[in-house]
């Protein structure tokens, strides 16, 4: 298993919404190079209120450099209850249960405001 190491410095990039900075991730492997990661980048206005059930609308501009180091919320969804593993295994294979155990922490932050991208790019230059 690869356990990445983080440092908080990437280049600042300009988007049509404003400037953005992410995190540098260096996988714990001699075969993999560093990656610039930009998490939780908004690409549209939150689909709430009058925008609910409508096509995405261009997002708001921001000033300054937005630090894109945290995942945005995921869209609301009904998640399986896996607190009782014995009961959960009656409805799903063990592999799915193990996968859900790893995935659920990333799905706990749910919101209708969920139109965000996670961007991964090869690091520019030396990390």
UniProtKB/TrEMBL annotation:
It holds the Pfam family COesterase. Belongs to the type-B carboxylesterase/lipase family. Coiled coil: none annotated. Keywords: Glycoprotein, Signal. This is Carboxylesterase type B domain-containing protein. It comes from the Eukaryota. Gene3D superfamilies: alpha/beta hydrolase. Residues 10-124 form the Carboxylesterase type B domain.
